[in-house]
Amino acid sequence: MSPRPVTPGILIRQALALLGLSRRQMAAALDMSERTLSEYETEFAWPRQVTLMAIEALMRRAGRTADADAFGNRCGTR
Predict the structure, then answer these.
(1) Full-prediction pTM beyond 0.90?
(2) Fewest CB atoms within 10 Å of the CB: 38, 44, 57, 68?
(3) CA 23 distance to own-chain centroid
(4) In the prediction, which pLDDT does 64 show?
(5) Distances, alpha carbon 44 to alpha carbons 3, 8, 14, 16, 77, in Å
(6) Which candidate, 17, 2, 19, 23, places its Cα nearest to that of 69?
(7) Are 50 and 58 in contact (CB under 8 A)?
(8) Which residues of the chain have pLDDT under 50?
(9) Cβ neighbour number for residue 34 with a 10 Å cutoff
(10) SS3 29
């Protein structure tokens, strides 16, 4: 059985937990509305690759790292 793919929603929840940010703080750091972040987190909307890369950069600046493949082929955009 293959591992469950990492989705943008999972990555956002992990980033929120690892960085200790509220949704409001994370949305502000990513220059987006809290509603948009929530839509990405619940996968009601799908973020563009540039948004996923911004989340990865935010984690990197805080000294955290995401799964190496997290923002590549397993997520992508749809």
Answers:
(1) no
(2) 68
(3) 11
(4) 80
(5) 23, 11, 18, 18, 13
(6) 2
(7) no
(8) 68-78
(9) 14
(10) helix
